[in-house]
Amino acid sequence: MNEYKIFSQALDISYPWVISNINLKETDQKVKELHIHVQLKTIKQNTTSQNFPLTKRQDNF
Q1: Mind listing the pLDDT tens digit for each residue in 10-36?
Q2: Residue 47: Cβ within 10 Å count
Q3: What residue ranges in the chain does DSSP mark as E strands?
Q4: Residue 11: helix, strand or coil by DSSP?
Q5: What is the DSSP-derived secondary structure letter of residue 48?
Q6: 2 pLDDT exceeds 60?
Q7: Which percentage of the chain shows pLDDT scores above 70?
Q8: Three-state DSSP state, 36
Q9: Mean pLDDT, rounded, for 35-60
Q10: How far apart, in whole angstroms, are the C-alpha atoms of residue 16 and residue 42?
Q11: Which three-class secondary structure state does DSSP give residue 45?
Q12: How far apart, in whole angstroms, are the C-alpha atoms of residue 59 and residue 33?
């Protein structure tokens, strides 16, 4: 199983949202930060409007 799928399941991210990039960075204080970039896939427009709630979550692993 690849890391994108693992983090998608752990963070409960599903279509139309996808993880586009994952980076592990070390700061000046020797602290490691995990950066997960989430992207909204484009959706074909139809006659009915679709509203997706946008939420921001921060989880500690």
Answers
A1: 999 999 999 999 999 888 888 888 899
A2: 4
A3: 17-26, 32-40
A4: coil
A5: S
A6: yes
A7: 67
A8: strand
A9: 67
A10: 7
A11: coil
A12: 12
Q: How far is CA 14 from CA 19, 26, 43, 54, 59, in A?
A: 9, 28, 14, 13, 17
Backbone phi, psi, residue 10, to 5°: -65, -35
Encoded tokens for 23: 């980076």
Task: Inform me whether the pLDDT recorded for 38 exceeds 70.
Answer: yes
For residue 41, what are its two tokens?
């896939």
pLDDT over 80 at 51, yes or no: no
Taking alpha carbons only, the member of 26, 7, 28 closest to residue 18 is 7
Q: What letter represents residue 9's amino acid?
A: Q
**CA torsion sign, 21 to 26 to 28 to 29?**
positive
Q: Specify the residue for token string 């009915």.
A: 48
The whole-angstrom separation of Cα 31 and Cα 47 is 49
